[in-house]
Specification:
Helix content is 0%, strand content 55%. It is an all-beta fold and 266 residues long. It has one domain: Beta Barrel (Porin). The chain has a 16-stranded antiparallel barrel. The chain is globular. The N terminus is likely disordered.
């Protein structure tokens, strides 16, 4: 089944422990504001340049990807509502993600639109009694997968760091969700995760606990127990705990992909 359509045009998927609402913090943590991300593999390079308004809200970023055969560039713009929360994210003025809130800062659902302005996926948010994100249920609206639901369930450790995401799928005509994939986040450090909230699915405003970095992420097939991927992260930090670089080793069966990333601040 092809589910790449879900949030496929948003580039970074980084998850940490999160509550549904606390305060507006986008892009800036302490004294440093992330301005540039450069990544390189054996066959490609990418550069992400971040743009902020005078209130240090992230309002957009450009991504340039260089492959041996060509170079491509994409632009993401971010809009905010009167309560200072994200209202809309656009990619190349073609793909769009709209936000709907049940109260200020508490996302009820988001809608993902394709280049023809059609709703492709609806993401519904559900929270536990402590206000932590418990589930996101995606409903697919178009194509061969129309009417399919995908549920992601989130679990956390005592520090609020994400530990497990469990994915299950419900096909049209079925009565129950079928477990599909489990992703485990382990070996957290005590440093700073600096990626702006508005670049990260599920775009939740995190709680005021430190947001740390996982050094090992493993995905397995729930049905067979087979390992789908393993990512091992090696960070280098400055004296204040901000990441300067990352070497990520991704293992997919017998193949390995090494990505080297550097971070710059303004």
């Amino acid at each position: 089944m092809n589910i790449g359509i879900i949030s496929g045009f948003f580039l970074l998927i980084v998850l940490s422990g999160c509550r549904k609402y606390n305060e507006v913090v986008v892009g800036q943590y302490g004294k440093k504001v992330l301005s540039e991300i450069n990544s390189k593999t054996s066959s490609s390079e990418s550069k992400i340049m971040l743009t902020y308004d005078r209130n240090d809200r992230l309002v957009g970023y450009t991504t340039t990807v260089t492959l041996p055969e060509n170079t491509s560039k994409s632009l993401v713009t971010i809009k905010y509502n009167d309560d200072n929360f994200i209202s809309e994210i656009n990619s190349n003025e073609v793909y769009k993600l709209k936000f709907y809130y049940e109260s200020p800062g508490v996302i009820e659902h988001t809608e993902e639109f394709d280049h023809k302005g059609r709703v492709v996926v609806t993401h519904s948010y559900h929270y536990d009694m402590k206000g932590f994100l418990k589930e996101i249920i995606d409903r697919l609206h178009l194509g061969d997968n129309e009417g399919t639901f995908i549920k992601n369930s989130y679990n956390y450790d005592q520090n609020g760091n994400l530990t497990v995401v469990m994915a299950a799928i419900l096909h049209p005509g079925s009565k129950n969700f079928v477990p599909w994939r489990e992703t485990y986040y382990k070996e957290y450090d005590n440093k700073i995760n600096i990626l702006p909230l508005s670049m990260n699915h599920p775009y939740i405003v995190f709680n005021n606990l430190p947001r740390h970095n996982s050094r090992k992420i493993t995905s397995i097939d729930t049905k067979t127990g087979a390992i789908l991927s393993i990512f091992k992260n090696e960070y280098v930090y400055d004296d204040y705990g901000y990441p300067l670089s990352l070497i990520q080793r991704g293992y997919f069966g017998s193949s390995e992909l090494v990505t080297k990333t550097t971070y710059k601040y303004k």
